[in-house]
Amino acid sequence: MKKILITGANGLLGQSLVDIFQKKYTMIATGVEDRSMHPNQNVKYQILDISNFNQSKDLINKFAPDVIINAASFTQVDACENQREICWQINVKGVENLANLCRRYDIHLIHYSTDYVFDGKKGPYSENDRPHPLGYYGKSKLASENVLRQIACPFTIARTCVIYGNAVQVKKNFYLWVLENLQKKLPLKVVTDQYNNPTLAEDLALGTELVIQASLLGTLHLAGKEYLNRFDFAVSIAKFFDLDANLLQPIETAQLKQASPRPMYGGLKIDKAIEMLQYEPRTVNNTFSFLKWKMNRNDR
Ligand SMILES: NC(=O)c1ccc[n+]([C@@H]2O[C@H](COP(=O)([O-])OP(=O)(O)OC[C@H]3O[C@@H](n4cnc5c(N)ncnc54)[C@H](OP(=O)(O)O)[C@@H]3O)[C@@H](O)[C@H]2O)c1
């Protein structure tokens, strides 16, 4: 049975990875918090800050994983513009630490990147398209990809976009932001000009398991099934959960005056993952059925 170490396990994706890997693998969850946020408090958990090389080395030595899944990242896109040092330490230096250790001990490192490595002029993008990030977050994630290519440990770069779902004490993702505001009957402004394929955290975690089973190395796009703009995605949420879609006010990205520029036609082609791994993300409505079931189960 493969031994899996998950970093950033208290994040949105991290908690879905724990859900899947705790059942079938010998797994250790790690994060910067002093305890696991996962509802199953029996999950094996250790503190790990990936930007700390010695802490990473000690834990990797002790646990001796076959695979490290790096879900740790500084993910606040606008904050990356004015906290560049912290962003670089986590998103690039942290990955460099893991990559060096994975090369030393021959560990398969699975690392997540983003469609924000592209400029959004002609998405959705395939693995062969040329990156050209607009903002500092995208630049740091592209730099993290290049660190892996340079250090050349056994690695998989899984690019994804707009991860959504329910998890304990995580930052608001787009789905939760829309759902919670509509449930409170609050109006909200949603952009009509940003296109991508939103990705259910659980689908990405299942895709990651396929990567491990196939020992697939290289760069791979793992994202949602449907390509749509944020406004239409918000309308789908309203319709599915029987909430008032009239509270959604269409606006354009430029009106938000965000610190970081956004790719307009972002998103990722997932043909390679479908062909090579039989990756099968759900339709948007099926992801909502799943999330409703998960909410009713009452653990998140
Ligand atoms: N969310 C998206 O829409 C999206 C889109 C494309 C790609 N991705 C990529 O997908 C991956 C997972 O994203 P996510 O949405 O699950 O992000 P998330 O919810 O922000 O989770 C990231 C986790 O990493 C932790 N972390 C931060 N610094 C760390 C450090 N130095 N060492 C260890 N852990 C650290 C965070 O802790 P704190 O919360 O305490 O800081 C958080 O628990 C990331 O690589 C992200 O870049 C995300």
Task: Please explain how this structure is put together.
- It is a single chain.
- The chain is α/β, with parallel strands linked by helices and 300 residues long.
- It has one domain: NAD(P)-binding Rossmann-like Domain (Rossmann fold, 3-Layer(aba) Sandwich), CATH 3.40.50.720.
- The protein has a seven-stranded parallel sheet with strand order 3-2-1-4-5-6-11, with helices on both faces.
- The chain is globular, with a radius of gyration of 18 Å.
- The model has no long low-confidence stretch (mean pLDDT 97).
- The structure holds NADP nicotinamide-adenine-dinucleotide phosphate.
- NADP nicotinamide-adenine-dinucleotide phosphate binds next to helix 1, helix 4 and strand 5.
Distance between the termini: 29 Å
Strand order of the largest sheet: 3-2-1-4-5-6-11
Total domain modules: 1
Q: What kind of sheet is the major sheet? A: 7 strands, parallel
The ligands found in this model are:
NADP nicotinamide-adenine-dinucleotide phosphate
What Rg is obtained from the alpha carbons, in whole angstroms?
18 Å
CATH homologous superfamily - what is it? Answer: NAD(P)-binding Rossmann-like Domain
Q: What is the string of helix and strand elements?
A: EHEEHEHHEHEEHEEEHEEHEHH
Query: Could you list the spans in which at least 5 consecutive residues all have pLDDT below 50?
Result: none
Structural class: alpha/beta
Q: What fraction strand?
A: 15-25%
What do the pLDDT scores average to? 97
Shape, principal axes of CA atoms:
globular
CATH class: Alpha Beta
Helix content: 40-55%
CATH architecture: 3-Layer(aba) Sandwich
